[in-house]
Amino acid sequence: MTARTTKTLVAAITGLVLVSGAALAGRDDTIDANRDVLRQRIEQGRYNGQLTRREYRDLNAEQAKINADIARAEADGRVTKREFNKIHDEQIAAYRNVKADSTNGQVSWWRRWMYQTRN
User: Fold this and answer.
1) CA contacts within 13 A on the Cβ side of 110
2) Which of 47, 55, 82, 110 is the most buried (most CB within 10 A)?
3) Is 45 exposed, middle or buried (0-12, 13-18, 19+ CB in 10 A)?
4) Alpha carbons 10 and 29: distance in angstroms, whole number
5) Alpha-carbon torsion 102, 1, 112, 34, what sign?
6) How far is residue 30's CA from residue 40's CA, in Å, rounded to a whole number?
7) Which residue, among 20, 14, 24, has the nearest Cα to 34 in the 3D structure?
8) CA pair distance 86, 115, nearest whole angstrom
9) 75 falls in which pLDDT band (50, 70, 90)?
10) For residue range 89-108, what is the model confidence (pLDDT) as tens digits?
11) CA atoms within a 13 Å half-sphere pointing along the CA-CB vector of 102
């Protein structure tokens, strides 16, 4: 395992533990926290070149579907346990997709070049 992989793995586990701990605060808080974490990871991956344009577009489409499911679940004013579990499972799958796409070796050469020249 490289240092970068180890650091990413530790960050991922820490994020999941924090998000799981947020479940005690309430379902809506957990869903929102997961949504924010995923959004930040997608934007960071696009900014530093780990995600290609197509991967970025696909991940955003996945997020739009999850957001529609969230809106549908919150439409009646309360999120049931079944709705929460469905949304949570979708968010975990999306997190895995972000991880897989950002570490698959495909890079946006332009973004990578721009990111490296700024440092």
Assistant:
1) 3
2) 55
3) buried
4) 23
5) positive
6) 15
7) 20
8) 36
9) very high
10) 999 999 999 998 888 777 77
11) 23
Amino acid identity for residue 60 in this structure: N
Count the Cβ atoms, other than its own, within 10 Å of residue 14: 10
Which three-class secondary structure string do you get for the chain?
A: CCHHHHHHHHHHHHHHHHHHHHCCCCHHHHHHHHHHHHHHHHHHHHHCCCCCHHHHHHHHHHHHHHHHHHHHHHCCCCCCHHHHHHHHHHHHHHHHHHHHHHCCCCCCHHHHHHHHHHC
Q: Which residue has the tokens 């991922």?
A: 12
What the block records as the tokens of 33 is 């926290």
